[in-house]
C-alpha cells in the first residue's frame, strides 16, 4: 500500500506531486481511520481545490504493488525496474527523498543491505532512542500549496521531526506548533548528510527536494 503510493507520487511530474496523497496513504498504512495531523496545519478547502486541479491535469501511471518491487532496492539501483518515465526523471535529491520515505517511518523498512550508507547511518542514529517500529508516529504538516510534508516520531526519551520539501523552493522548516525557539537539537539534512548538535537561535529552512530531521532529546 505505502510503496504503491510512493510509486504513484513520484511518477507524476514534480510540480504536480500532491502531498495529500502521502498523507492519505500513510494514514491508511498506519491503520488509522481518521487523519492524524494537527487540524490547524491543513486548510481542507485549499486541499480539496488543489487536489481537484491536479487530478484534472496530472496523468499518473498506475503501478501495482508488485510492479514497485524496485522500491526496495538501494539508492544506487533505486530506479532499476521502475517505469521509464520515472527512472529517467528522478534526480539524486529525489531518490534520497524516496529512500527516506521508505526507511524513516514506523512501517517495515527495506532490508538493511539494500539501503544507502547515509540512510543506514541516519536510521541507526535515530534507533539509539528505540526501534523505529515501536515509535509513536503523528503526521503534523500537510502543506499542499508548498509541497511540504512532515511527521513526528516519538520515543520514550526523544522526538524526531521528519520534514520533506518536494517543491523547487526553499521554505521555512515546518516544525510543529509550540516548538521552542531556543532548543538543543540534533539536525540532519539529506543535502548535507551530517549530524549537527546546537541550540536553535533563529528560523531554520529546508531547501528544494530535500528532507530534514530534527531530534530533540
Task: Explain what you see.
The chain has 217 residues and is an alpha+beta fold. The chain has one domain: Immunoglobulin-like, CATH 2.60.40.1180. It is 28% helix and 22% strand. The strands form 2 sheets. It has a 6-stranded antiparallel β-sheet with strand order 1-2-3-8-5-6, covered by helices on one side. The chain has a two-stranded antiparallel ribbon with strand order 4-7. Helix 1 runs antiparallel to helix 2 and helix 1 packs antiparallel against helix 5. The protein is globular and about 40 Å long. The two termini are 32 Å apart. The relative contact order is 0.15. About 21% of the residues have low confidence.
Class by SSE composition? alpha+beta
Helicity range: 25-40%
Q: Detail the poorly predicted runs.
A: 32-41, 53-88
Topology order in helix (H) and strand (E) letters: HHHHHHEEEEEEEE
CATH class placement: Mainly Beta
Domain count: the total is: 1
Termini distance?
A: 32 Å
Shape assignment: globular
Strand content: 15-25%
User: What's the multimeric state?
Assistant: single chain
Largest sheet: 6 strands, antiparallel
CATH topology: Immunoglobulin-like
Radius of gyration: 16 Å
Q: Considering the protein shown, what is the CATH homologous superfamily?
A: Golgi alpha-mannosidase II
Number of DSSP strand runs: 8
Mean pLDDT: 81
Helical run tally: 6
Strand order of the largest sheet: 1-2-3-8-5-6
The name of the CATH architecture is Sandwich
